[in-house]
Fold:
Amino acid sequence: MVFAKKTLPLIVCFVMGTLVAIQYYVPHRLSQSFIEELSHWEIIIAAFAFFLGLVSVMQVHIGKLRRRPPGWGFSLFLFAGIIIGVATGFISRGKQISETGAMTPFGWMYNNMLNPLQGTMFCLLGFYIVSAAYRAFKVRSKEAAVLLMVAVLFIFARVPLGQYLWESVWGSTLPWQLHQIVEWIMNTPAKAAGRGILIGVSLGAVATSVKIIAGIERQYMGGKD
Amino acid sequence: MKASTLFSITMAALLLAPPAARAAAAKPAGKAAPTAAAKPAPAASALSAVQGLAADDMPYDAGSEVLISWKAMPYDAPAVKYTVHLSSISRDGPWAQGAVFPSDTKYRADIDLPFWAWKKTKDRHAVALNLETAFGVDDEVGKKRLRGSVIYAKVVASDGTSEAASPAVSALATSDWFSLPKLNNFVFTLLFCCIVLWFISNARKKDLFMRRIPGLDAVEDAIGRATEMGRPIYFLTGRLDIDSISTIASSLILGEIAKRIAQYDTQLKVPHTYAMTMAVCQEITKQAYSEAGRPDAYREDINFFITEDQFAYTAAVNGMMVREKPAACFYMGYYYAESLLLTEVGASVGAIQIAGSDAEHQLPFFFITCDYTLIGEELYAAGAYLSRDPVLVGTLRGQDTGKAFVMLAIFAGVILATCGVLFGFEHGVQTFLEVFKSY
Amino acid sequence: MKRFLEGLANVDRRILFLLVVVVILVPIMHPLALPGLKVTDSVRGVYDQIEKLPPRSTIAISFDFDPASKPELYPMALAVTRHAFKKDLKVIGMNLWITGTGLADEILTAAAAEHGKRYGEDYVFLGWQPSPIAVITGVFTDIYKIFSKDQKGNDTRALPVMKGFRSFQQLDYFVELGAGSPGLPHWVQYGADKFKIKMGGGCTAVSEPGYRPYYPVQITGLIPAMKGAAEYESLIGKPDKAYAGLDAISLGHFLILLALAMCNLIPVLTRFTK
Structure:
């Protein structure tokens, strides 16, 4: 039992991790075939993960229907959504437009339900950013002042109206136009900071991978024992 | 199997690779079929056939390319074109056109390989041709047939009015076992791995210093507040799956926070956007409750999956926040547009909010809506900070050393490149900088 | 006065939301034609690469977004696809976001119809497959092992547009239009940079600073959100939805400026009125 739960996963992790790491340096055809085969396995395993998720969703919401806590009615909606979604998907064979050019039930759901629902969620950002800017973006320190100044500059300069107003006031008296200044900030200091973070992230990824491959980090399996 | 044994095997496997690979890389010409030095064809026009034509296996590839090279000719000019023909049948064709280019282009120096793996000269033309592309093969049968075939090549020089063809030469494309151009990457990776492992073993022997991170000091307050108010604590692991470093870091923090929550007997909720992450976090949380001495308090529904869809997930979590009014929310990991949607709602229900993200483009949103924000790599440090586990602290120190090396390399590179331009040894600098280039 | 200022500081956020609605909706319903659009180098970086490709070159576009980010990415996806068809390029479409499959199909079909392009001969839509990193690795090694069938169920290898094409390593240009993860960094790290394929990107406004480090080395250009799409539309000479949305963007940004000013001025003014 311990072998299947702890040792075997460690061996699989070590062997596969090492092989994949070495594969990067081996251009041989066998190495290419190996990584292709691994890609297929990954797709299959990822597909099984959907079932894992589905089971979790079912467990949580069946439990809610049994216990009937406040808001349990939403769980009914969830099951109705799953059943209707899967049924229309099957009926329409996953296509939005049928062979005859007509919209399928699945296409109707996609265009008239998923589209506006997702769009609504995303557009909330626009509302929240104004609300957050109004009540929370206060200058409380020097750092916050710099943050605010850059924010104002960018908000003003990134839109055509801001660029137009800048040119109307300054014309061509300045050596750089506003959009060029902003592009410079984006392409030079901001990019440098971004690359710094990327380097740090990459080193972190390598370090974590080494720990996992070597079996030092085992928390993902539920601890070290 | 012990960690040290596994490490020894890893190192042994990694160290064994280069010699074999170097040997493989060193004899590409030997593996190719005997090549015939091209003799000039009888002069039928002003152009003469190219000289020194050779066909070889292209080194450091999967056996899909051949390298055709010949001497730079006196008549090389933009108006004169070279056409490389290939045949997999016989020395006399039929021929497939491999490449056409002006005769003053494509020299050995133009092939982007580093100095330790490739001699860069301008005295020979060189072109690497992909056989499957040249012969238009896209099915497995065709690919297999090509793999074992001797490839014949000839070069025709033409200036629009006349042309001169070379005799055919042959080669056999073979797969290589080590990509010598990636040697720099291999050495640096190996070095970095050794540094990390050394620091891990060293951290077990003595305490390493870690600076204060106020956001993490506030964790206890947040949990205490939730306990007093009798409200749940939400922990979100970010928008990426468990294969992401941010999510792994986030799951380590979850483990530490779960231990404290278990001690206080407060309700923890971890809604997930990926099933794989959920499975891993379930194990971590269960272990945390056990280590806290409260395995009885652990419930399977602490971690639960919602959906992979970004905004459906956000809507679901927001809905739960509004209904359950959590006392504390932790946002650890990588976030996209949902960051503000989540934290604004969290702020509106009065939760203490602690965020940690290496998504630098989302940090401004966290700054203005959360009480504490861990910036960039503080996220990776958080697990080590909370647990003081020597393995995690040692890893951090290893990463810092790696970063110091990168900073030093950048600094030296800038100085060298500047001096190269100022004092006219740009070529030498460029050659040296190949050590740090990716191939 | 002080009470008024305090009231202003604690204004119900629903009033702010109402202001946003007005500022966004009015210019969409009654366009103001505000001037000032400038084409930036990062957008031109994508346009120029497609513009200089000879006819019948192969370009692939990965439409990695869903209906949520449709306002930001749909216009640029349409503009880039139109540009590719206008240049008579062969287009391979695919996506890594399952909920974006319908949108991607819609964009390709609409742009192809405008330019009289035929499915299977001039373009193909491969659809979606799970496990994005495996898909990216797969299309760069052997596309038929990942997409043996296209979205319509055809044998991909048998389509004329795929003749002689084995993997993304043969692409003349690749464009990734992504709203998040999986998206641009994945394509750069596991595909284009590894296999040295020229690549351009498009993204939401919020992701732009995060993707800038890849420009101009790993990606030749970056189209940021609706404004970038409007720039692209102006470059191809076909102003469309993004262009029409510029007024709303301008005024929306100015509303945020106003909110920032109020946030910082109200406490100061309140102190003075004491």
In short: The longest helix of chain C spans residues 246-272.
